[in-house]
Amino acid sequence: MKNNESNIYSQISSYMGRLLREKFGKGPTSVYVTINNPYITVYLRDFLAPMERVLLDKGERKRLEETRDVLMQELIPEIQKELKVIAGIDIGKLHYDWNLDNRTGIVFGWIKDVQPTLGDSGLSKVEEEKFYEEINRASQKGQKMPEKTEVFWLNERTILTKRTGILVTIEQELIKNDFVKELKITKRPMEKAIVDQQRLEKIIDRKILDTFVEWDFSEDIGYFIFVTGAKKE
């Protein structure tokens, strides 16, 4: 990594940690930033405030997620503005997801006006094809076969998949009738469950530590983000 890139990553990491600590009462212990056009990801570890832990222990997961949604919707414009100041990148849309049981989270977005690169998977062509097949298989189980599937290997431990054209008719009607929040709450655990993690781990030869999901319903796009461990020797 070039010195300038390392400095930018460090500034973003410090900013995100400080911002979340101020707004949530406790910030993440670790913040890992990746920028690989056209995406930026910010992976958060050990991120669960004391009051959130109480809610989680009492089974108030939905209430906890709703509270975080309110705070994050308020923070997104501020984060977009600060990323432009720090890194000179113009973020189109920012998304986020949590793994409350692991006390981890992801904030990610696509960068405007840049040349996209899929990155180097380190896999053979056959292995890459199998990876695509597994992503499509999961989509078909939960919704339908995507019209288009793209996989971005952002670094050796972060894989982002973008699936376009996945919404079925009933989901489109729910979105039209402003049931977006309810749809996300229902879909999130379901989509994580239909991913065959063991199959994917066998293909990429590394353990998947976290699976995150998010959507851009206005564009009929769904995302999976996988954070993995080191490649097995």
Question: Quick gist of this model?
Answer:
With 233 residues, the protein is α+β, with helices and mostly antiparallel strands.
Explain this structure.
The chain is α+β, with helices and mostly antiparallel strands and 233 residues long. The protein has two domains: 3-111; 125-228. It is 45% helix and 27% strand. The longest helix is centred in the first third of the chain and has 27 residues, at 61-87. The protein is globular, with a radius of gyration of 17 Å.
Q: Tell me the total number of β-strands.
A: 8
Radius of gyration: 17 Å
- Poorly predicted runs of 5 or more residues: none
Helical residues, percent: 40-55%
Assign the structural class, choosing from mainly alpha, mainly beta, alpha/beta, alpha+beta, or little secondary structure: alpha+beta
Coarse morphology = globular
**Helical segment tally?**
7
SSE string, helix = H, strand = E?
HEEHHEEHEEHHHEE
Instruction: Outline the biggest β-sheet.
Output: 4 strands, antiparallel
Strand order of the largest sheet: 1-2-4-3
N-end to C-end Cα span: 24 Å
Mean pLDDT value: 93
Q: How many domain modules?
A: 2
Strand content: 25-35%
Q: Helices, strands, pairings?
A:
Elements: H1 3-24, E1 30-36, E2 39-45, H2 50-57, H3 61-87, E3 91-99, E4 104-111, H4 125-142, E5 148-155, E6 158-164, H5 169-176, H6 180-194, H7 197-204, E7 208-216, E8 221-228
Antiparallel strand pairs: 1-2, 2-4, 3-4, 5-6, 6-8, 7-8
Task: Name its key features.
single chain, 233 residues, alpha+beta, 2 domains, four-stranded antiparallel β-sheet, 8 strands, 45% helix
